[in-house]
Amino acid sequence: MVSLQPPLCDFGWKAREFNLLGIDGKYHTLESARGPNGLLVMFICNHCPYVKSIRDRIIRDTRELQQFGINTIAIMSNDPADYAEDSFDNMKLVAEQYSYPFPYVIDETQQIAKDYGAVCTPDFFGFNAKLELQYRGRLDASRKEAAPDAERDLFNAMRQVAQTGLGPREQLASMGCSIKWKDEV
């Protein structure tokens, strides 16, 4: 397991289009995923210990963000040939087991992860209503191990984005496992 930190927010960077198959059998696009006040795009997977350790907090925060007009989509870009736990069938099982309140889609070609510059799981991209990047940071101050009363960085930032259109200027990078890229042929 390689632990990586993605770069911090490139404010104003425009969200890239996508059309990805979800575990619900439907295709999800940037337009269908967005909320009236913004969109949180998360690159996650099933096998990563970082994602597993924050899964419940991701679900809590994304549910609460819906009340502020922020929708969420989770993209799985890992190569399931190397990590069977990240297969499409296993994506369905995990999403059902945890009652994901957001679309969970597969990026089979890994092009969307490349288009977004995603480097790890989890990697969070928070966009305002104009789909301009306003947050690229960590979920919360507890990092991998849940800490009571940890500062909820992502939730607070996206609530601010919903209310003002702008994210906080100071952000701390997320941390996670590297995306498992397919071998170039």
TrEMBL record:
A single MF term (Gene Ontology): oxidoreductase activity
Organism: Ferriphaselus amnicola
CDD domains: PRX_like1
One Pfam family cited in the UniProt record for this chain: AhpC-TSA
UniProt-listed InterPro entries: AhpC/TSA (IPR000866), PRX-like1 (IPR047262), Thioredoxin-like_sf (IPR036249), Thioredoxin_domain (IPR013766)
Lineage, broadest ranks: Bacteria, Pseudomonadati, Pseudomonadota, Betaproteobacteria, Nitrosomonadales
Every Thioredoxin domain range: 9-144
Protein name: Alkyl hydroperoxide reductase
